[in-house]
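Hey L., structure's done. Input below.
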Amino acid sequence: MRALLVEDDEMIGRSLRQALEGAGWSVDWVRDGPLAQSALDDGDYTCVLLDLGLPGRDGAEVLRRARESGDATPVLVLTARGDIEDRIHVLDLGADDYLQKPFAFRELLARMRAIVRRRDGAAHSLIGSGALQLDLTTREVLQNGVREMLTAREFALLHALLERPGAILSREQLENRIYGWGEEVTSNAVDVLIHGMRRKIGPDAIRNVRGLGWRVAVPA
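Output:
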């Protein structure tokens, strides 16, 4: 899955990006408010990790503008500010959660999973329905109850499709969800991923719509 990390501290930003990538996330990292706003306008993110004390534009203002524009991307605020009024303010602006620095990385991952689940309308770790489901905690696909491990990019691709069952996602839309800035993407990268996934979950689970893209069926 693809995350936008907004953090101006070089050491924190570098270590968080490395840890998130190690946990299977594709991460775009920006260091100031205007760049964060531009990335949100242009990107398709699973969630945003947003610091408040940013140069150029405060994180709270970035959040306010994003929500006023209709952007519903889950936002987890990460900040050293501990005052209760700061927490209330960003939550009222539309933040999905708030985590005070310093924090344990395992807790950060758990909170990211939680806000993504809420966006997907799931109270538990499974999204999808019928014969095909995805476990956000274990990164496994369930096909008729049988679990199969996925690679990080297979997981990101299937997550994007299961978020919108029946909707056709183009090659570009899927690439945007799987790869971060600067990652080399070959012309057949999506095809290779889908070919591998069909071996795991069956040839009809992900369907190609010629010239348009791919989709998963709406459960009956």
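The chain has eight helices and eleven strands. The two ends are 27 Å apart (CA to CA).

-- N.
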